[in-house]
UniProtKB/TrEMBL annotation:
Leading EC class: transferase
Subcellular location, record wording: Cytoplasm
Catalytic activity: guanosine(527) in 16S rRNA + S-adenosyl-L-methionine = N(7)-methylguanosine(527) in 16S rRNA + S-adenosyl-L-homocysteine
Keyword list, A-Z: Cytoplasm, Methyltransferase, rRNA processing, S-adenosyl-L-methionine, Transferase
Organism expressing this protein natively: Gluconobacter morbifer G707
Family: Belongs to the methyltransferase superfamily. RNA methyltransferase RsmG family.
Protein known as: Ribosomal RNA small subunit methyltransferase G
EC number: 2.1.1.170
Length: 193
């Protein structure tokens, strides 16, 4: 379990309450996950916080209900850009950021059409295979930036597949919350020509 301050815990509780309210109208998480928001979604996102340096700018791709981007904005107080194409989810993300006092910019567009300033860190969860994530991330990341992707059991296969198209420095870290899941950390990557 990731340890957070009492104040951060209270802000995350506010986020969880708001998500549960909004989830009755829009599908931010599966309805059966509302009762297990902390272990399944919040803790899963929080484990990235300790891999992110203080002050680093973060861009989160396909943020959905705010995992992991909004959770990281609350836990780290770093500036976070959330890219999400679903307008109703963007309305939730803006409202949750306001209520939880998170430094967030929401870009209500498809990733391919979003051009935020290059970030120090790119995150994503439950969005696309690694190869596609790297393709989206490259122009949105500083040259010396790092990608942190929350992945399921197929992380090793995705890394093998992506290695055919990308030169990269990569590590697979075991997820602390999802048995069999993993964090794929990628830096210094460029397309094989
Ligand atoms: C399966 S959900 C995962 C949401 C969140 N990351 C999580 O772990 O709960 C994928 C999200 O990515 C968004 N999405 C999918 N393709 C996208 C794209 N090309 N540009 C922006 N958002 C996209 C969807 O609208 C959806 O909210």
């Amino acid at each position: 379990m990731t340890t957070v301050s009492r104040e951060t815990h209270a802000r995350l509780e506010r986020f969880a309450d708001l998500l549960a309210q909004w989830n009755t109208k829009i599908n931010l998480v599966s309805p059966r996950d509302v009762a297990s928001l902390w272990p399944r979604h919040i803790e899963d996102s929080l484990q990235l916080a300790e891999l992110i340096p203080a002050g680093a700018t973060i861009t989160d791709l396909g943020s959905g209900g705010g995992f992991p981007g909004l959770i990281l904005a609350i836990a780290t107080d770093n500036p976070v850009t959330l890219i999400e194409s679903d307008q109703r989810k963007c309305a939730f993300l803006r409202e949750a950021a306001r209520i939880c006092g998170a430094k967030v910019t929401v870009i209500p567009k498809r990733i391919e059409a979003a051009f935020p300033p290059p970030a120090d860190i790119i995150t994503a969860r439950a969005l696309a295979p690694l190869n596609k994530l790297l393709n989206w991330a490259r122009p949105l990341l500083r040259e010396d930036g790092v990608c942190l992707f929350l992945k399921g059991q197929k992380a090793p296969e995705e890394l093998t597949e992506a290695s055919r198209d990308w030169h990269m420095t990569s590590t697979i870290l075991p997820s602390r919350t999802d048995g069999g899941g993993a964090i794929i950390k990628v830096s210094d990557f460029k397309r094989v020509v």
